[in-house]
Design goal:
Length: 151
């Protein structure tokens, strides 16, 4: 039984992505049983978990990033955030529209300006500490539309 899969799985090219197999012995009959555990489907697949059709191709969501808007068209919101950070303050820059490379470049520039760490993901930049005034001054000098939100 080891190494041999049922014919339904031999036809599929992607069986290893979606299933984990285990071979166990039945206590009463001492015959090997093939157990199949279904794993979570990859996030980019739409509506179908598994197909037995060997010619089937999965539909995937497009991974297109929007083009980066010029600085004058960016509507950035700068706010102080303390949620789920053990009381530590983080300056959050939200509203960036563009490619992740451009977001990373802007984040690196802002982190160097403030002399602190941080991260950039999901079209948001996090800079450790309260640097709202310094960031707003820098962004407005680079012709970004930056607005302070909250306190």
């Amino acid at each position: 039984m080891e190494g041999k899969l049922p014919s339904i799985f031999q036809k599929s090219k992607l069986w290893a992505e979606s299933y984990i197999f285990g071979v166990f012995s039945d206590i009463c009959h001492q015959e090997p049983l093939l157990i199949c555990f279904i794993m979570a489907k990859p996030k980019d697949r739409i509506n179908i978990v598994y197909s037995t059709n060997p010619n089937f191709s999965y539909q995937t969501e497009p991974d297109e990033e929007p083009e980066t808007l010029p600085p004058a068209q960016q509507q950035l919101k700068i706010m102080l955030d303390k949620k789920a950070r053990a009381g530590k303050q983080v300056t959050l820059i939200a509203g960036f529209i563009g490619k992740s490379e451009d977001l990373e470049t802007l984040a690196k520039t802002l982190k160097n300006l403030c002399g602190s760490g941080g991260s950039a993901k999901d079209n948001e930049i996090l800079v450790q500490g309260d640097h709202r005034e310094k960031i707003i001054t820098y962004l407005t000098s680079k012709s970004y539309k930056a607005k302070k939100i909250g306190g």
